[in-house]
Amino acid sequence: MKKVAIQGIKGSYHHQVALNYFGQEIELLEFLSFDELANSIVNNNCDYGVMAIENSIAGSIIPNYALIDNLNLKITGEYYININHQLLALSGSKIQDLEVVASHPMALLQCKNFFKKYPKITLIEDKDTAEVAFRIQRDNIQKMGAIASVHASELYNLNILSKDIQTIKNNETRFVIISKNSLINDSKSNKASIKFSLSHKTGSLAAILNILRDCNLNLTKIQSLPIIETPWKYSFFIDTTYDSIVSLEKALKLIDENSESLKVLGIYKNNIND
User: Which residues does residue 89 pair with via DSSP β-bridges, in sequence order?
Assistant: First the structure.
């Protein structure tokens, strides 16, 4: 049975992704921070981790890129889900009764416009969407709400006071599946995540983008991160899809020759259209 680590607890969106990606027959390890999750993989306490990496509204989760890189973890897969946030509270509660709503910072950001209608409600950042729901139910906390999933409302027997309260209804989050080891010779793989750094030279980034074009690779994501040891110098993280492993290998060779450093973070199956 695979051991799979998630950020959050049962009922969280990470839990939902773990079940959808790996199936029901998994041993779930719950962590309230991404650092703990990542280190559980490094320390061989689990086989895989599920980690949110970007959201279609709030953008990239920058620290998670650094975690994957710094701990030399490998991306072995990805999964996209629609994030539909529900406002949950104890049975019999009304929105007008709530004094506090707590949730993960990302969930609060995605639902900010909804709460403009309720200025008396104080919004509080917490570690996990489902953990707040669990705490409200366990401790019978009155006048407190949680932003979480339908699954969390069912698990913790809370009422949905308002459905789908996210600002933009088409709200997707991309999760990556991470491990200590790369996929080996998987014929279904057609996407790569890589990191490279460049010198301060005119056209250096354009040269890399031209390599992707010339090798028929499709750039799907680019993200810059500062190199901590060298102020005002940046690494670039990119995702690219490809039709031929030969094209990818050619592109990687050329990028290596035209950059200061190159690191392959993972080669896996593009899952955006599944």
Answer: 159
Buried b (16+ CB within 10 A) or exposed e, 172-183: ebbbbbbbbeeb
- Rounded to 5 degrees, φ, ψ at 165 are -90, 5
Domain that holds residue 205: 191-266
Q: What is the CATH number of the domain that holds 74?
A: 3.40.190.10
> Domain boundary at 119, 146, 179, which?
179
Pairwise CA distance, residues 31 & 9, whole Å: 7
* Residues 193 and 238 sit within 8 Å (Cβ to Cβ): yes
Kindly report, residue by residue over 69-104, the tens digit of the pLDDT: 999 999 999 999 999 999 999 999 999 999 999 999
Q: Please give the helix or strand (H or E) that residue 59 lies within, else none.
A: strand 59-60
pLDDT, tens digit, for every residue of 185-227?
677 899 999 999 998 888 999 999 999 999 999 999 999 988 8
Decide: 39 and 32 in contact? Cβ < 8 Å: no
